[in-house]
Amino acid sequence: MTDQYSLVATERAARAHMEQLDPALDFESAQAVASIYRAANAVRAHVTNEVLRPVDLSWTGFVVLWVVWIWDGLETRHAAEAAAISKGTLTGVVKTLESRGLLTKQQRQDDRRLVDLRLTPAGIDLMKELFPRFNAIESRVVSGLSERRKKDLTASLRTIVTDIEDLKDKQP
């Protein structure tokens, strides 16, 4: 990436535009949230290139497999919510994962309108193969942080998530 579009150059340009709009705008908050986005996108691109693309799996496909894996199955609306995707997006992802033999859909006996997702043995094997590689990248991308800074970062990000969850809970 050229210096013109580096992190520092982008922050300078954003500050200049924000100050033109209103000097009282909260640049520090905007910078913090932008940094969350940049970090998340950088990690996502890196993991996709290193771990997922070689097995022809999208980020969203992996996330759906992961949430179904950790919960030992999920009803579709909960899978969509846990993966932070729409039910429409989930439908397409499930179709792809099902066609690859990684996931199955089962109609619930207690309510025939609901559908549970479960990993197949091949899906479980894939997660057991991929997750250690995924986790190795997680370790590598935070290796420049001390254990204390990792804990502080985690606590800060958890606070942001729980604050947003609390806001959602208070909406009518």
Automatic annotation (TrEMBL):
<keyword id="KW-0238">DNA-binding</keyword>
<protein>
    <submittedName>
        <fullName>MarR family winged helix-turn-helix transcriptional regulator</fullName>
    </submittedName>
</protein>
<dbReference type="InterPro" id="IPR000835">
    <property type="entry name" value="HTH_MarR-typ"/>
</dbReference>
<dbReference type="InterPro" id="IPR039422">
    <property type="entry name" value="MarR/SlyA-like"/>
</dbReference>
<dbReference type="InterPro" id="IPR023187">
    <property type="entry name" value="Tscrpt_reg_MarR-type_CS"/>
</dbReference>
<keyword id="KW-0804">Transcription</keyword>
<dbReference type="InterPro" id="IPR036390">
    <property type="entry name" value="WH_DNA-bd_sf"/>
</dbReference>
<dbReference type="InterPro" id="IPR036388">
    <property type="entry name" value="WH-like_DNA-bd_sf"/>
</dbReference>
<feature type="domain" description="HTH marR-type">
    <location>
        <begin position="29"/>
        <end position="166"/>
    </location>
</feature>
<dbReference type="Pfam" id="PF01047">
    <property type="entry name" value="MarR"/>
</dbReference>
<keyword id="KW-0805">Transcription regulation</keyword>
